[in-house]
Known about the structure:
Blueprint: H1 5-9, H2 18-23, E1 31-33, E2 36-40, H3 46-61, H4 67-78, H5 80-89, E3 93-99, E4 102-113, E5 117-125, H6 134-147, E6 153-159, H7 164-170, E7 174-184, E8 187-197
Parallel strand pairs: 5-6
Antiparallel strand pairs: 1-2, 2-3, 3-4, 4-5, 6-8, 7-8
Amino acid sequence: MNPCLHLALFPFINHFDENTLLANFKKEPFVTATAISIRFAKMEDLHSVQLLAQKIWPETYKDILSEAQIGYMMNLFYSSSSLKNQMVDLKHVFILIEAGDSLLGFASYSCIKNPGVYKLHKIYILPNQQGKGLGKTIIDFIVRDIRGKNATVLQLNVNRTNKARLFYERLGFSVTREEDIEIGHDYFMNDFVMEKPLV
């Protein structure tokens, strides 16, 4: 992966200063374990979601998608207007995972069907923080939250060649079907749909 990739493909986040954003965070911890906290994100935190995605996406998808498709999808899903639409109009709940002043990852989820079907739209952890149990901690947090809202199923999509499928299976998800989603510019998301029953 070209180390300057973000300069060409992620222009909408080049002007944000990470240190300034971190300094301006207002901490509101909800879950703390071994110095890890998870909190619900606010509108002003969406810049931080962009910064995390910039660090995580190229590494996560470098062996699955082309650089061009990674850049296209970053702009499609992580532009300021797209994230605002997800949070405000689509009612996606965003959470941030932190250790002290360090951001480790993020996730988002929402109710998509009645009664009780929720979807995990995003779950991403910095590459150097993976394999430490954070993914399970995030899923457990989300499951506790949505069970309180009468959720019966947690659903997600995962690329059919992404080894993350095995992680989800260990947490009780199973493949229910395949799905090919056209996202424009002749690109497709070739996914498994997975579900975890909550009752």
